[in-house]
Input
Amino acid sequence: ILNVEQSPQSLHVQEGDSTNFTCSFPSSNFYALHWYRWETAKSPEALFVMTLNGDEKKKGRISATLNTKEGYSYLYIKGSQPEDSATYLCAFTSGTYKYIFGTGTRLKVLA
Amino acid sequence: NAGVTQTPKFRVLKTGQSMTLLCAQDMNHEYMYWYRQDPGMGLRLIHYSVGEGTTAKGEVPDGYNVSRLKKQNFLLGLESAAPSQTSVYFCASSQDRGGNQPQHFGDGTRLSIL
Output
């Protein structure tokens, strides 16, 4: 059974702090890794689609890196703001229409 | 842009009742998915569709049926609801089969079975 794990499960940071989370996934049969931002009472919203080993993607203060050989991806948030508070989900796919989602990292940014 | 629209948003059923959840997308996506989200677990795939008229089982298909009669709509049915089906259901669609494009999600349907 393929498994995707995210850590930590939750964290609280102060406004202005930088933070990062980890997504661990199977290193075999890798096709793509997705990161989503999920605010309470809303739908998950895509942040990044990562497909190549060594990929680095950036959107504003948020960036992500990918290591397919060892099976992990990091998501970084620089200078966290209260509006960054959300659950950050990653999803692994081996290219077969099916995605395996992690349980997410719940981030709370304190003003 | 509407994107992916799910109806209803909330529903309470009694055990044994039936109902249909509707998912509609206006992005002309071929691929559509139904997930359920339960506390402490990642989104789990119930059924998916790779095009109009085709459906396939996902990870947790038991107790659910689906239909994709029109490309833009993907229906999820519960024939005889059970308390174990209390969950939040999300529909998603994507442009590409393998993962080069992200999934687009609806806002979810919160379903309680008494």
Q: What stands out?
A: The two ends of chain B are 35 Å apart (CA to CA). The first strand of chain B starts at residue 4 and ends at 7. Residues 8 and 109 of chain B are 6 Å apart (CA to CA). Chain B has a mean pLDDT of 94.
